[in-house]
Design a protein that fits this description.
This protein is mainly alpha-helical. Helix content is 59%, strand content 0%. Helix 2 packs antiparallel against helix 3. It is globular, with a radius of gyration of 19 Å.
């Protein structure tokens, strides 16, 4: 499993494969539409997750909708700087 994740990371970071942020955004939109359409037809979550895969939107690997969205969330998560004034004092700075 770990090798698979590393392989996906390498594929995604390779500019020669044409996988950029715009393609990932388009794929996310297309897969979300696929999933929502599938769910609107009263299909199970598992069926829709397996039915909507990344190979349908031009990515060079196959990944379920849920796995793709989970990874996108992790990739887009960024630390938010704190505005807590006391933090510098707690860490010993600003004396």
């Amino acid at each position: 499993m770990r090798v698979y994740i590393v392989a996906i990371a390498l594929v995604m970071s390779s500019p020669t494969l044409g996988v950029d942020g715009a393609l990932l955004n388009r794929c996310e939109k297309q897969l979300s539409e696929c999933y929502n359409t599938c769910k609107a037809q009263w299909n199970s979550t598992d069926k829709c997750n397996a039915q909507c895969t990344t190979d349908q939107c031009g990515l060079p690997w196959r990944e379920s909708y849920g796995a793709f969205i989970d990874r996108r969330i992790e990739e887009n998560a960024r630390p938010v700087p704190t505005a807590f004034v006391g933090l510098k004092r707690i860490k010993g700075a600003g004396h």
